[in-house]
Design brief:
105 residues; alpha+beta; Porin_dom_sf
Length: 105
């Protein structure tokens, strides 16, 4: 009985040590950051705005109206070693001021 118990203990020890060794020998390779990753993680962003303003004066003073629309569009790269780079373009156009002045004449 003691011999069977010793063999069983030896067998369990070998099985457990093989599993532990198999787990410890697997090492994952650390991936180094690549320059192409900054473009894979890049984002586009933007917005559109509209602004209206008028001045209504008393008497012979002229009334003024204006409406402008604009926006922005930007591009930001992904993070590469703690750095990001971004570019943004902004535009604004006066839309309705000219039309309203022509109608008033």
């Amino acid at each position: 009985m003691l011999k069977v118990l010793n063999l069983l203990t030896l067998f369990l020890y070998l099985v457990l040590s093989l599993n532990l060794k198999a787990q410890s020998s697997d090492s994952l390779k650390e991936e180094r950051p690549q320059l192409i990753d900054i473009f894979k993680n890049a984002t586009f962003h933007g917005h559109i705005r509209n602004f209206y303003m008028n001045t209504i004066n008393r008497g012979d003073l002229k009334d003024y109206y204006t409406n402008a629309s604009g926006g922005a569009i930007g591009f930001t790269t992904g993070n590469f070693k703690g750095f990001e780079v971004g570019v943004k373009g902004i535009f604004t156009y006066k839309l309705l001021a000219v039309i309203w002045v022509l109608r008033m004449r």
